[in-house]
Specification:
3 domains; binds heme C; Jelly Rolls; alpha+beta; 7 helices
C-alpha cells in the first residue's frame, strides 16, 4: 500500500484545474424571507415550563449550559426570562440555534426551529415571559461526558498548555505532534476535545509529511507556531475538525482515512480572546480501523476563483467539476471568509436533474459546519458537482475587514478570501481488499486538463 500525500496535491491541483463559468448566474441565490407559519395560541396561555423549556432543552442547552461554548446557560426560568426579548429576536433571525443550512436533504444533527416553535417563543416573550406551572417543566437533558466514541486507541495532546492572552486579535496557533508511526495506519474516527471552550473557537487537524510544520514550529517561540488562518504547509490530509455543535463520527466499517508512516499531526486551534488570560490543552483522539479497510475516505476541495473588486456588493463565483466515476458522497462543507455571504453546493445528474446538497443562505464565518447527509448521496459517473457563491465587498457588509474596501484575492489570512466546497466521499468501484485501487480525483482531473490543453492546441 502506498499512501501518497494526494490530499495536499489535490488542493494544489484544484487551484489550477477548477473550471469557473464565465457567465454570472441571473437567479437570485436567496429566496425572500417568508412570514412565519404560526397560528397564535390563546392570549397569555404560553408559559416557560409547558411550551418554551421543551424547545430550549432540545435545541439550546447542548451549548447553553455551564462549561460549554455559549456565554450563558439557558437551563432555568431565571436564566431565560431575563433574556426573553433577545432570545425571541435571535431565533426569529435564525441566528440561534446556529444551524446555517436551509432545509434540503436531511442532515445528521440538524438543529433548526420550526416556524411554530419560533412563533411560540415570540408570543411568550411578547406576553411578558410567564413562568407557568413548575410541574410542567421537563427534566433537563443528559449530555454525554468524555469521549463520544469511547476511549481512543491513541490520544494526541498538545505537548504543553498554551496560554491565550487576554486581548488582541484572534489567534490561529498550530501545534505539531509527531505520530512516530513506523507503518502506514488507517483511522476510523478522529475525535477532538477542545481543552478550554471559553476560548477555543474551532480546531482543524491536518497531517504533515514534509517536515515543514516542524520547521515553522522551531522558528516560533512558545508552543506551536502562529499563522493568519492557514497552516503554512501543503497538507497531506485533513483528518478532523471541531466547531461547536459538530460531533465526530466513526466511518462505516470498511471505510477509513490513511495516515502515512512518519506523519506529524498538526492541530490548528483558532482562539477567540475573551478579556482574561486563559490556558488551553486540546486533545485529539485517534481510533484505528478495526477490520480490513476496503475503501478510502476521501476529501476533495472543489474551489472557485476569487478576485473580488473593491466595493462590489454582489460578486458571484461559480465553479464545477465532473464526477469521474460512481461515488457516494457523505458530507459537504462550504468554506469562505468574511466577505462571503452565501453558498450553494449542488449536483447535476447525467439526466440533467439537479440535486441540492447544501445551501447556506446567510454565511457566517463563525459557524463553519460540515453537513453530513443522513442518507449518503449516490452520484453516478458523468454527474457534475457545482458551487455558487456570493460575496459582499462593499462598506455595507459589517464584516468587511477593509475600510475602505480593497480588492481581495485568494489567500490564507482571514482578510483574504477563499471559495471552497469540501466533498467527503468514497469511490464505489474501489475495493482495497480485492486489490482495486482507484487513483485520486486530482490525478483524474489533471489528466482531463492535459487532454483539454492538447485539444485546444
Ligand atoms: C452549537 C452551540 C449553540 C446552540 C445549539 C445554541 N447557541 Fe446560542 N450561542 C452560542 C454561542 C457560542 C453564543 C455566543 C457567540 C455568538 O453570539 O455567536 C450564543 C449566543 C446566544 C445569544 C446571545 C446573542 C446576542 O446577540 O447577545 C442568545 C440569546 C442565544 N445564543 C440563544 C440561543 C437559543 C434560544 C438557542 C436555541 C434555540 C441557542 N442559542 C442555541 C452557541 C449556541
Amino acid at each position: 500500500m502506498k499512501l501518497s500525500s494526494s490530499l495536499g496535491l489535490a488542493i494544489i491541483a484544484l487551484l489550477v484545474i477548477a473550471v469557473p463559468h464565465a457567465k454570472p448566474d441571473p437567479r437570485p441565490l436567496a429566496p425572500d424571507a417568508k412570514t412565519l407559519a404560526y397560528s397564535p395560541r390563546p392570549l397569555n396561555s404560553v408559559t416557560f415550563t409547558k411550551d418554551v423549556a421543551p424547545i430550549l432543552f432540545n435545541n439550546c442547552t447542548s451549548c447553553h449550559r455551564t462549561g460549554e461554548v455559549a456565554p450563558f446557560a439557558l437551563e432555568s426560568y431565571k436564566d431565560t426570562a431575563k433574556r426573553a426579548k433577545t432570545i425571541a429576536s435571535v431565533v426569529s433571525k435564525h441566528v440561534m440555534p446556529p444551524w446555517k443550512a436551509a432545509p434540503g436533504p436531511a442532515y445528521m444533527d440538524e438543529c433548526r426551529l420550526t416556524d411554530d416553535q419560533i412563533g411560540v417563543i415570540q408570543q411568550w416573550a411578547a406576553e411578558g415571559a410567564r413562568e407557568g406551572n413548575p410541574a410542567d417543566l421537563p427534566a433537563l437533558p443528559q449530555f454525554p461526558i468524555g469521549w463520544r466514541n469511547g476511549e481512543p486507541d491513541l490520544v494526541i495532546s498538545m505537548p504543553e498548555a498554551y496560554t491565550v492572552p487576554a486581548e488582541g486579535r484572534d489567534i490561529y496557533r498550530n501545534f505539531v505532534i509527531p505520530t512516530g508511526f513506523t507503518q502506514d495506519k488507517w483511522l476510523a474516527a478522529v475525535e477532538i476535545r477542545p481543552g478550554n471552550r471559553r476560548v477555543v473557537h474551532h480546531v482543524l487537524v491536518h497531517l504533515d509529511v514534509s517536515g515543514k510544520a516542524r520547521e515553522l514550529d522551531a522558528k516560533d517561540p512558545g508552543p506551536g507556531y502562529r499563522t493568519g488562518g492557514g497552516i503554512g504547509f501543503a497538507s497531506a490530509g485533513q483528518i478532523g475538525g471541531w466547531a461547536p455543535g459538530n460531533v465526530a463520527r466513526r466511518w462505516p466499517d470498511g471505510i477509513a482515512m490513511p495516515v502515512p508512516a512518519g506523519s506529524d499531526v498538526v492541530i490548528q486551534v483558532h482562539y477567540n480572546l475573551n478579556g482574561k488570560p486563559e490556558t488551553d490543552r486540546t486533545q485529539v483522539g485517534l481510533y484505528f480501523a478495526k477490520g480490513p479497510v476496503d475503501k478510502r475516505a476521501r476529501l476533495f476541495p472543489l474551489t472557485g476563483r476569487v478576485n473580488i473588486p473593491a466595493g462590489d456588493a454582489d460578486h458571484r463565483v461559480t465553479s464545477s467539476m465532473p464526477v469521474p466515476s460512481d461515488v457516494t458522497l457523505r458530507s459537504v462543507m462550504p468554506h469562505m471568509h468574511l466577505l462571503g455571504r452565501e453558498m450553494k453546493i449542488f449536483a447535476t445528474l447525467p439526466n440533467g436533474k439537479e440535486l441540492p446538497l447544501v445551501h447556506v443562505p446567510e454565511w457566517d464565518f463563525n459557524w463553519q459546519m460540515s453537513y453530513v447527509f443522513k442518507q449518503p448521496v449516490k452520484l453516478p459517473r458523468g454527474s457534475k458537482v457545482s458551487l455558487e457563491a456570493r460575496y459582499d465587498n462593499s462598506t455595507d457588509n459589517p464584516r468587511n475587514p477593509n475600510s475602505p474596501p480593497k480588492n481581495v484575492r485568494w489567500g490564507e489570512q482571514t482578510t483574504d478570501e477563499m471559495c471552497l466546497a469540501y466533498l467527503n466521499f468514497t469511490v464505489d468501484s474501489e475495493s482495497l481488499t480485492q486489490g482495486k485501487n482507484v487513483p485520486s480525483i486530482s490525478d483524474f482531473l489533471r489528466q482531463l486538463s492535459e487532454k483539454r490543453k492538447k485539444t485546444a492546441n
